Automatic annotation (TrEMBL):
Catalyzes the first step in hexosamine metabolism, converting fructose-6P into glucosamine-6P using glutamine as a nitrogen source. One of its GO terms (molecular function) is carbohydrate derivative binding. Its EC number is 2.6.1.16. It is found in: Cytoplasm. The chain holds residues 243 to 607 of 607 of the full protein. This is Glutamine--fructose-6-phosphate aminotransferase [isomerizing]. The keyword Repeat applies. It catalyses: D-fructose 6-phosphate + L-glutamine = D-glucosamine 6-phosphate + L-glutamate. Its main location: cytoplasm. Homodimer. The keyword DNA-binding does not apply.
Length: 365
């Protein structure tokens, strides 16, 4: 049941500290502070290329993983939505690994993309939340998310646990490929161990998100989400979450793309949610923030203390998140965009757990 929560989605959002912790404990030994994945049927050091495929929110987890694998393991990565990959039938290189990401493990396009990758002799690794699912059964190896059943159509805890599994994988790959030194690995694992309690801190700011949702987002017809670098996939995920449950038109953009089109949309009526931890690319997203402000856009800032100090006074509203290692920040910012979408949908009175036209698992094309 929903316990004392009004919707499954809210319950599942609040389960995240626990299930991220469970997922972490499966892949990371707190005693040795090191990632310990189950034995895999390939050697990371010999992988020529990773091809990641998924749909919807799981696809955004794949985009996130691309940044992590490239940075930590210096591994070439392609990410593609499964419905495109399966019909484009691209050549996949010898020695390649294909990662299929799926909460349900039953998504028909993802399964078909996996089968195509098999014809290209890729080793198939899947990240699923249902270990007995079709995608899991057809994979060479499975790294399950330990999220427990997800009932709400909008994916929340499945997404953040996917992120956790993918990050531990990128760390393991970085170690095997000798691109990640032990000091960095230790710093990262320490940062990962802190995530469940930091997600709790985000959840404790609940009211701030509710106020932004009711005061700004629920009144809008269109909302833009901007992010750069590691925050770009979170901007996309934030926009998807908002549109699917509140029916407000929302788009996620890479901040650098603003000038190439979307800035034409900006006026007082279009709120712009800026996902911007004070990381290495902060100055660049701060300049996108200024561009929007100069055109009268209504800015919602999601940032940490340093970012708030820099920009909050120019925002219509701001939420403050814990200051964390940039590599784990996307997990915390995911929770922020989930809360914004949830409270906006509640304010609009839509059916949060079962939005119109959507199915929990898409088993037909
Ligand atoms: O079960 P899957 O992870 O394969 O599902 C993929 C998408 O259908 C799913 O993430 C969808 O986009 C969600 N409704 C997003 O909240």
């Amino acid at each position: 049941g929903k316990g004392n929560h009004r919707h499954f989605m809210l319950k599942e959002i609040h389960e995240q500290p626990a299930v991220i912790g469970d997922t972490l404990h499966t892949y990371l030994s707190p005693a040795t502070r090191s990632v310990t994945l189950p034995a895999l049927p390939f050697d990371w050091a010999k992988v020529t290329r990773l091809t990641i495929t998924a749909c919807g929110t799981a696809y955004f987890a794949g985009m996130m993983a691309k940044y992590w694998f490239e940075k930590l393991a210096r591994l070439p990565v392609e990410v593609e939505v499964a419905s495109e990959l399966r019909y484009r039938e691209p050549p996949l290189p010898e020695g390649g690994v294909c990662i299929a990401i799926s909460q349900s493990g039953e998504t028909v396009d993802t399964l078909a993309a996996l089968r195509y990758a098999k014809t290209q002799h890729q080793t198939i690794l899947s990240v699923v939340n249902v270990p007995e699912s079709a995608i899991a059964r057809e994979s060479h190896a499975v790294l399950p998310t330990i999220a427990g059943p997800e009932i709400g159509v909008a994916s929340t805890k499945a997404f953040t646990t996917q992120l956790m599994v993918l990050l531990t994988m990128a760390v393991a790959a970085g170690r095997a490929r000798r691109t990640l030194c032990s000091a960095d690995e230790e710093r990262l694992t320490r940062a990962m161990i802190e995530v469940p309690s930091q997600v709790n801190e985000v959840l404790n700011m609940d009211l701030a998100y509710k106020n932004i949702a009711e005061g700004i987002l629920a009144k809008a017809r269109d909302v833009l989400y901007l992010g750069r670098g590691l925050s770009f996939p979170i901007a996309l995920e934030g926009a998807l979450k908002l549109k699917e449950i509140s029916y407000i038109h929302a788009e996620g953009y890479a901040g650098g793309e603003m000038k190439h089109g979307p800035i034409a949309l900006i006026d007082e009526a279009v709120p712009v949610v800026v996902v911007a931890p004070a990381d290495a690319i902060f100055d660049k997203i701060a300049s996108n923030f200024e561009q929007v402000r100069a055109r009268g856009g209504k800015l919602v800032l999601l940032s940490d203390e340093a970012g708030n100090d820099r920009l909050a006074h120019h925002a219509a509203a701001a939420a403050k998140l814990p200051t964390v290692d940039p590599m784990v920040a996307p997990i915390l910012y995911s929770v922020s965009v989930q809360l914004l979408a949830y409270y906006t949908a509640v304010a609009k009175g839509t059916d949060v757990d079962q939005p119109r036209n959507l199915a929990k698992s898409v088993t037909v094309e």
